[in-house]
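During the second half of the funding period, the structural biology subgroup turned its attention to how the target accommodates small molecules. The most pressing case was biotin, which had performed well in the primary screen but for which no bound structure existed. We therefore specified the complex as follows and requested a full 3D prediction, including the ligand pose.
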Amino acid sequence: MKDNWADRAASLLREECADDFYKKILYRESTGSSNEWMKEAGEAGEPSCIAGIAEEQTAGKGRLGRTWVSPKGENIYFSLLLRPDVEPRHAATLTLVMGLTVAQAIRETTGLPVGIKWPNDVVINHRKVCGILTEMKADPEKIEYVVIGTGINVNQTDFAEAISSMATSLRIESGMREIDRAVLLESVLRHFRENFLLFEKTEDLSGLMEAYDALLVNRGQCVRIEDPKGPYTAVSKGIDETGALIVVREDGTEERISSGEVSVRGLYGYV
Ligand code: BTN
């Protein structure tokens, strides 16, 4: 059988990294949700570092119970099964690690002006090109497994009206040039391996903060913090080693904002 693009990505990766960080790189023509697929693999006792890549998802999941529309033949949908040796409270930080990874891989393979909107939206020209959904099974002391699901809008050119002002794809942003999904996926898997190993060593983002801040779109800019106690404007400075966003209020006081607590917007829109 002819190799699919995920197999091609796996062989490109073998040329670049000789180790066996990824125990398996699996591909399905169709699946409900690659997160559900990798959660089943976690329940079945599969080891850490398995990638499940889908050509299409019939029940793709987004954050906050939303649907992630996942048409065939255009984009990348994949999930990683990990059993990281870190405390459960640090697992959410892996979402930022993946956001950084995708931004680095897009920049490396396309040269597009990609950035990160804190905490983990990957954006080009103020529009989102990637979504990440992290799910975990853990007891209070130990993580059993984490699944990080990532959807990258690669060659999609039509978006539903409801999201078209906020979403874009690499193809649209590169003047309709078709992007090779295998080359991009290889770069994502390679950067993730490197970033994850750094993260696991310190259980935080101390080794990745500099790279992350360099890609943070609203760094040094005025942002609106949608705090449940009342919105306010502040200047965003970058992240700390936990992934919290450091902002400085107009009166000079510094706040550290944790993801999940509040959302951060540009003064005039989404970014
Ligand atoms: C978001 O709402 O921004 C997160 C979207 C996450 C989508 C990806 S696609 C691969 C993986 N499988 C899923 O069902 N969802 C994630």
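Two results from this model are relevant to the next phase. The first helix runs from residue 5 to 16. Residues 33-35, 57, 60-63, 66, 68, 77, 79, 131-133, 149-151 surround biotin (CB under 6 Å).
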